[in-house]
Structure to design on (766 residues):
């Protein structure tokens, strides 16, 4: 069992931490000249830009540099310098949605000063937004907006105050007698508690679903999954216990005492992406008295063998949600728990309520996870 | 009057947007070798570092670069490359507290990928924390912590949902019948609504003051002051009205309907730093029915002539708080409204309740404003 966990950790880390070895240069004659500033640029910044093909164009002034590259999607693209010392270049078309990227100036890997910064790959770095056909689901619209609150909760087990963010839905402030279910939602390896609001736009996805009447309102709690201690070569030390202690013994009681929650198993869900999916899997299998709804986004699946080893889980858990980006399934990834489609079908046959979702034409990326949250929320906390 | 406003705007902009022309290199024999990672580094990053003299040491790998500089406090320091292509260098000693800085790699101005990023000088860029003798006032301690909430409030006048952050004190969730006073707190030019929490640590200053019993608990609301439209050469178009409309007609009603506030003049304060002080000055002089407590941090003062022009202000405002960093007063800055010390003394003689605070050995910097908030909070909303 321990070996399996380690294999999956290694696998997820490798997928997330792809090697950057391909170098390319885009042929200008192939590029559609309809670039617009990215939606996640810093205020007033014209670059980076995106065109209708999903190509990313960056520009930076570096008059004395010998070489500048755009590093995105595991490929490095050489930029070209003009007579004023300004470097410009484009990537190949990227999938819809959010992507991390960086610049490389004479061998220095740095954020692009034109973009907003996001925490991923264990650093604050640049991000780009490729407009998506279904971008409406996470757009900021003229609807009632919930709040995202930063809390600092006491954590005796780690001897510090730890940070989490709590989404409260529109109307939370109104009826002081109303209580809400809670989804605990985890980020992936190399990310932190800011990811689901910043890259994931979880609050806007919820605001929009609630405005349409397509989900019950509930709270979302996002904290740091302590996953970034997991490094190449250090996997043998990986242990779910420190995070499980923070989550179960410290964060949940804090949230239940500081927010108007429905503080019981039927009204508590856990979900996570990638490494956060693995954490969700391990913690919910071992604690079916705590969580009733379980969602793994690009983060493994649950097998019949798991059910046999955890009979309470089968009895008490109301929903198992498994999702992937379609590109993740193109090269079938038989993780240590077997094929996620076959596993989920077997759970359904065994009588569990399951939901399998595939995000079209996306990979191990935030667009898959935004869509997964949009698909998941309406299924949670049904009577 | 309009000309005076413009002069002050220009003055504040020039102070904030100093020219970077000095180039220096630190003599290694002068440097104390007791550097430690800065408190606002990205997780796990060893650099930048700070020593006991307040020098900043940066390090970055840029094997093919010709020149790398550290740009801090209006001075550029040349770094030195080792045989592995890693550049290292130090600044002169800096004042205590928080400072913005950046790196320059072969002519490209970029954030240092080792530091956390802060919005200032109209960009997300690097920041460094020089440990201060009184750093205790904004340290994260084992006390009850309030929350910082992101709200998105409807703004018909700008046709969008605008963002603000709201600090609610510890205990806010407990007694649902208790209502709180509110301080509206503005950032400076080139900054935004994130500044008072990130650079200013306003929430921790309040948590600590409340834990010590040294201030009444109150809410703090921080939104974007729309100051960044003010650029060199564009001052003639500066107009307080768009922001005043957002603040008075949109944000305050939203806060009063979504939080348990004491929604009347005696329980509403406004404060701002630098450009935000100028906004506070203009808005509160014109609206003494809205705000009872007024604080200008490195942002001008109020003169006898102002009182004569605004008789209601003299009658209705309970406190005028004026503060500066001591270095700002070393080169006497007779702003368009006269000397702040003389002005404030004249208001006191005229019978107003004033408070003048000088932050020791700091300039037009966040350490002055953190200390000012710490000095101001206990004076607010006294019976």
């Amino acid at each position: 069992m321990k070996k399996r966990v380690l294999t999956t950790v290694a696998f997820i880390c490798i997928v997330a931490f792809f090697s950057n070895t391909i170098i390319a240069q885009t042929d200008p004659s192939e590029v559609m000249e309809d670039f617009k500033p990215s939606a996640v640029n810093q205020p007033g910044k014209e670059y980076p830009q995106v065109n209708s093909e999903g190509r990313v164009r960056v520009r930076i002034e570096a008059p004395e540099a010998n070489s500048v590259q755009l590093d995105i999607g595991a490929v490095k693209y050489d930029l070209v310098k003009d007579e004023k010392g300004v470097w410009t270049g484009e990537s190949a078309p990227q999938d819809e949605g959010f992507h991390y990227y960086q610049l490389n100036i004479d061998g220095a890997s740095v954020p692009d000063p034109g973009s907003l910064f996001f925490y991923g790959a264990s650093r604050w770095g640049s991000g780009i937004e490729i407009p998506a056909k279904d971008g409406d689901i996470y757009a900021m619209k003229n609807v009632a907006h919930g709040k995202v609150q930063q809390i600092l909760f006491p954590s005796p087990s780690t001897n510090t105050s730890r940070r989490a963010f709590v989404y409260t839905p529109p109307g939370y402030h109104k009826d002081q007698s109303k209580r809400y279910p809670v989804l605990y939602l985890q980020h992936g390896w190399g990310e932190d508690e800011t990811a689901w609001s910043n890259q994931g736009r979880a609050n806007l996805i919820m605001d929009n679903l609630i405005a349409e009447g397509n989900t019950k309102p509930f709270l979302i709690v996002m904290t740091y999954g302590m996953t970034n201690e997991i490094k190449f070569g250090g996997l043998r030390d990986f242990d779910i216990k420190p995070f499980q202690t923070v989550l179960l013994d410290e964060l949940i009681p804090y949230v239940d005492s500081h927010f108007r929650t429905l503080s019981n198993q039927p009204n508590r869900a856990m979900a996570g992406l990638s490494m956060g999916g693995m954490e969700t899997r391990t913690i919910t299998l071992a604690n079916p008295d705590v969580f009733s709804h379980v969602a793994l986004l690009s983060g493994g699946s649950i097998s019949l063998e798991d059910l046999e080893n955890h009979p309470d889980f089968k009895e008490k858990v109301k929903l198992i949600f498994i999702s992937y980006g379609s590109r993740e399934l193109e090269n079938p990834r038989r993780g240590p728990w077997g094929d996620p489609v076959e596993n989920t079908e077997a759970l359904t046959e065994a009588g569990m309520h399951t939901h399998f979702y595939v995000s079209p034409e996306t990979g191990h990326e935030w667009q898959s996870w935004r869509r997964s949250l949009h698909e998941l929320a309406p299924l949670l906390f049904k009577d």
